[in-house]
Amino acid sequence: MRILGVSETCDLGSMYLRLIAEGHEVRVSISEPLAAGTMSGMVPRAADWRAELPWVKEAGAAGIILFEAVGFGRVQDELRADGFNVIGGSAFGDLLEENRAFAQDLLRRSGLRVARAKEFTNIASALEDLADRPRRCVFKRSASAADTFVGTMDDGRDIAALLRSMAPPEGQSFVLMDHVDGIETGVGAYFNGECFLAPACLDWEHKRFFAGDMGELTGEMGTVATFERSDKLFATVLRPLEPVLRDVGHVGWVNLNTIINSEAVSPLEFTCRFGYPGFAVLEPLQDLGWGELFGAIIGKERTSFPAASGFSLCIVLSTPPFPYSRKEVAAPVGIPVVVDAVEPAHLHWGEVGQEKGETVTSGLYGWTAVVTGTGPSVRDAQVAAYDRARRVHTPNLRYRLDIGDKLIAHGLSLLDEWGWLGS
Length: 423
Description:
- This protein has helices at 13-21, 53-58, 73-81, 91-98, 100-109, 123-132, 157-165, 231-237, 242-248, 278-282, 290-299, 378-389, 405-417, and strands at residues 2-7, 25-30, 63-67, 85-87, 117-120, 137-141, 148-150, 174-178, 183-191, 201-210, 214-226, 252-260, 265-271, 311-318, 338-339, 347-349, 352-355, 358-361, 367-375, 392-393.
- The protein is an alpha+beta fold.
- β1 (2-7), α1 and β2 form a beta-alpha-beta unit.
- The radius of gyration is 21 Å and the shape is globular.
């Protein structure tokens, strides 16, 4: 196959390395200047991805364009109309991810019980709404890349204080969503343009920077995932979306994050593209390479793929300036990263490059690497992942020490008790 990666910061670098190891041709275009060092010396580059379209076209059915980020959906739809095989997302997928009010309305019409939410374009209206109906709530920008603040006070005074401290929004709306107690659970599957491929996965993310769910909301600090017992949640939250995704021609990953309690499943937000480190945590459970999986997605003949039983647990290994970027905080790159006997299948490089034969830190954020562990239980996967994390060495390396703890202590048993884990 020939795969052209279109990226801003090369978040899928580990995937490109796997594809190269499988014997596929890969070229990656990276648009962010501060990410120029990511995967340097490791993955072939393309200065202008559009100039590489003839190279993809020459491969015929074996040519694929892979888009990493949200915001390129319309371009992907146009390329598909021009006859290219494109995996990543769609204009509709971008809308689901960026416009929370639109997504919640669609889910409501699909029969799900969505959390009460209201969209605002000015702060005064939001403050008035909170005064009329005090409650614990979550502040979210409508655009997916913007900030989120989860309130902790039952009367919403913390959210009100946040709003009063903010500058008036300029052309961007925000949402106040009622807080829902429960277990945050994601349901995801690959969509081939016509249907979802089985099996779907269940995942449990850990987004806070510090153990104990303290500190900043990051992109992700670690995830637990499985392809087992996902049928009931998949049928409830994702399968109803098949007709609309088919109509818009979406091709790629679709994940819906939810809150589950004894009463209902409440959907929160979509990810309609490959997630990082979502792709890394799933990789050890997928009993086929990325190239074969991509072939299954674009070929449309297959409706399933082989997946291993048990759990995968991943740990994000970060270095400064994470969880901020080098646009906000000055931090050096080029710091050596030394790995002591971690199996390649469980080491997923992030923002690194090659300099003088050494693997060194690079990139915009400090997402240095991800390690994974697998096993029949979450505890087994956790032990394996942390054993590997201890074998990665670089100055100022940070990672959470509690990935999977809540799931082991009570999360899985409660989901089972409430009847949401299928057979």
